[in-house]
Amino acid sequence: MSPTFRNFSTRRSSLTFRVSLLTLLVFLATLGATAQPAPPLHTDPLNLDPQVRQAMQDFYNLDFDAALKIDEQVAQQHPNDPMAWNYILTTVIFRELYHQDLLDTTYYAHNSFLSAKRNVPVSQATRNRIEDLTNKAVHLCDAGIKANPNDANAYFARGYAKGMHAVFITLVDHSFAAAARQGYASRNDSESALQIDPQYADAKMSIGIQKFAVASLPRWVRILVGFMGVGGNKQQGIDNLKEAIALGVVTPVESRTALSLFLRHDGRYPEALAVQRGLAEQFPHNYLYRLEVANLLKDEGQGLEAIAAYKQVIADAQKPDVHGASYFVDPRLQLAWFGMADTQRGYNEIKDAAYGYTQAAAQASSSDWLRKRAELNAGEMYDLLHDRSQALHMYQLVFAPGDQSQAETAHKYLDTPFTGK
């Protein structure tokens, strides 16, 4: 055998050995990777289901009916998972709040809503459904915790259900004591989930909301709900929300929404605007997120920019999207007209404000409560314009059957024209 052939043969054997060895190492590495346990999800696996993610996308674009249709299909497929029922509960609650004009955060940016005399006419059928869904989710969680006391998903789901129910009875019924107890129970469940799994970031939302809310309550409300010994801390609450935003699976958007509201409540407008603009950019067809940018500009004192933003929202509501559908799903234009009129009023644009309030009152989808507020304010503007007959007409509308929270003020202006601002 020639030296050249022997060298070639040796090199080929060496190369074959190296390739075989590399192949074996790759195979073993693959085998080892397959054999490793999957990393913990720190969330209920159902939260990652494509159907659930699509329903959330619909929900955040305020297409509640589309979201609910998917939610109900998911619940049929996963009847023993409490989160499946929580999805339905959340959608039903927020659809009702939206239709009652209760999701305009101007109403909650200050503490005046705590003493507001508002009756919210929610049908008994809707109330029953919310109670049934809450009880079903809690019952499934109780059973899950009894079977496995270390079930972080069950603790989180129970806290989530109680938190959603607390939102409903707070905004609809002003049941502050009952809502405060449920909110505290939600916080406790979330803390239990974190004790079991410290990386369960979604649980930080409930804790953050409860901490900020308790710290923000006036003393008389804290006494009323028996929360004098319960700790609250605004900055800790905000920090908890930021953790849920950064690492959560199902609560980042809700946490950003709550964070924006809390920052607005404390007059931290540039920070709130940054959060809200991010939400509006991510969900451009969410009417409320766009509206809230205008509201924040108004509160920050950028009135002209706010008026322009309100006008843009109203204009966008009239145009189709790229697919030919409505740009916003069921836009509650009374909220934009009312907010813009308030801003114009502050700039002494009285004629424009009168028109805006009248438009808010004329929207067919307006709640009776908001309509009466708009009619009262329109009457005040017409008084300032010295159009007494039109002012009296608007005041008379306030006395129509339904919400009477503005009736006392309207009655006063029947006798004495409004002269303030």
Give a structural overview:
- The chain is built from 19 helices and no strands.
- By secondary structure, the chain is an all-alpha fold.
- The protein has a domain at 40-266: Alpha Horseshoe (Serine Threonine Protein Phosphatase 5, Tetratricopeptide repeat).
- α5 (124-147) runs antiparallel to α6 (152-173) and α13 runs parallel beside α15.
- It is globular.
- Mean pLDDT is 87; it is low at 1-38.
Gyration radius, in Å: 28 Å
End-to-end separation: 110 Å
CATH topology of one domain: Serine Threonine Protein Phosphatase 5, Tetratricopeptide repeat
How many β-strands, per DSSP?
A: 0
Which strand-content bin applies to the residues?
A: under 5%
Structural class, by secondary structure, is mainly alpha
As residue ranges, the low-confidence spans are 1-38
The helix-strand sequence is HHHHHHHHHHHHHHHHHHH
Mean pLDDT: 87
Q: How many helices?
A: 19
CATH class type of one domain: Mainly Alpha
Instruction: Give a quick account of the main beta sheet: strands, pairing sense, barrel closure.
Output: none
Helix content: over 70%
CATH architectural grouping of one domain: Alpha Horseshoe
Q: Assign an overall shape.
A: globular
